[in-house]
Write a structure and sequence with these properties.
With 345 residues, the chain is of the alpha/beta class. It is built from 11 helices and 13 strands. It folds into 2 domains: 125 residues, NAD(P)-binding Rossmann-like Domain (Rossmann fold, 3-Layer(aba) Sandwich), CATH 3.40.50.720; 163 residues, Dihydrodipicolinate Reductase, domain 2 (2-Layer Sandwich), CATH 3.30.360.10.
């Protein structure tokens, strides 16, 4: 059994970690950190956890974490993680960070998109981008993982197979992605109030969303050349889920079956990737699960492929993927604690 701590345990991603890890046969939860709810049982904050996990939330104590944990998940806001993680890392803890602070290979790219200098740039050389389907062997050997975001996971995994096969042009890729409201986190914001969200659909951070740089970094590695693309996120009035509709120009005419085979071959050994022969993914096919569903269609008039990918933003887009990374880090079965099907209803 390994001992696990969660920082930011009362946020949406944090509580999903609590839920998933409470049922993980190789894990003992030993520390839940929450500044907002310190002194309260996690089951008082989230009554769904009554009788499942009744640990009392506490303040962060790095010394205590080092003594009582083998690995720590940091489900903290962007910017906060990079201030906290160095002290945990120095004490020999393995760290899986769910913020954007340790996902980048280049400190200048981080500074440009996050509007602040990275306070621990030396750790960017240590951290590994935690997308198992692309970086599995690196993940196994590291001690610091930058767990990918939800938009990025859905977008990167949809495009990677066709880029790897040189089937699509690297210019003019367009990603139109839509997310449920939980993707914005649990902190109060007028934009996320019920009356602001329901019966409405809106684009936001058009041409400026931070995840653009993360997607470009990883897809450039896959393609073997620098990629610049257009990414537009949208907020939709549902609690959870991401659906990405991706447009790319084909280098030559391909049939749908040929492209589907490329995707299937690329992910042939991946338990959590489901590729559609016919039909297209929907968010209710993956809600509550760690699966990513991928389908596509070919527009023969324009010689263009339209890729559709769907994930649960809080599971494969956050907590589930973090558990998948933990399993790799400690040599467990990669699917342990994550094999459940989606909720559907």
């Amino acid at each position: 059994m390994i001992r696990v701590g969660i920082l930011g345990a009362t946020g949406y991603a944090g509580v999903e970690l609590v839920r998933l890890l409470s049922a993980h046969k190789e894990v003992t939860l030993t520390m839940l950190v929450s500044q907002s709810y310190k002194g309260m049982k996690i089951s008082e904050v989230y009554p769904s956890l009554r009788g499942v996990c009744d640990i009392v939330c506490e303040e962060l104590d790095a010394e205590k974490a080092a003594k009582n944990c083998d690995v720590v998940f940091t489900a903290l806001p962007h910017g906060a993680s990079k201030e906290v993680i160095p002290s945990l890392y120095e004490k020999g803890l393995k760290v899986i960070d769910l913020s954007g602070d340790f996902r980048y290979n280049d400190k200048e790219v981080y500074a440009a998109w996050y509007g602040q200098e990275h306070s621990s740039p030396e750790l960017l050389d240590v951290s590994v981008y935690g997308l198992p389907e692309l970086h599995r062997e690196e993940i196994k050997k590291t001690t610091l993982i930058g767990n990918p975001g939800c938009y990025t996971t859905c977008s990167i995994m949809g495009l990677a197979p066709l880029l790897a096969n040189k089937a699509i042009e690297t210019k003019n890729i367009i990603i139109d992605a839509k997310s449920g409201v939980s993707g914005a986190g649990r902190s109060l914001s007028i934009d996320n109030h019920f009356c602001e969200c329901t019966e409405s659909l809106k684009a936001y951070k058009v041409a400026t969303h931070r995840h653009t740089s993360e997607i470009e970094q990883e897809l450039s590695l896959v393609a073997g050349e620098d990629i610049t693309l257009s990414f537009t996120p949208h907020l939709i009035p549902m609690k959870r889920g991401i659906l990405a509709t991706i447009y790319a120009n084909l280098k030559k005419p391909y049939t749908k079956d040929e492209l589907i085979k490329m995707v299937k071959d690329f992910y042939k050994d991946e338990y959590f990737v489901r590729v559609y022969d016919s039909g297209l993914p929907e968010t209710n096919h993956v809600a509550g699960s760690n699966f990513i569903d991928i389908g596509l269609e070919v527009d023969t008039r324009l010689n263009r492929v339209i890729i559709i990918s769907a994930i649960d933003n809080l599971i494969k887009g956050a907590a589930g993927q973090a558990v998948q990374n933990m399993n790799l880090l400690f040599g467990f079965d990669e699917t342990e604690g994550l094999k459940n099907a989606g909720l559907y209803l």
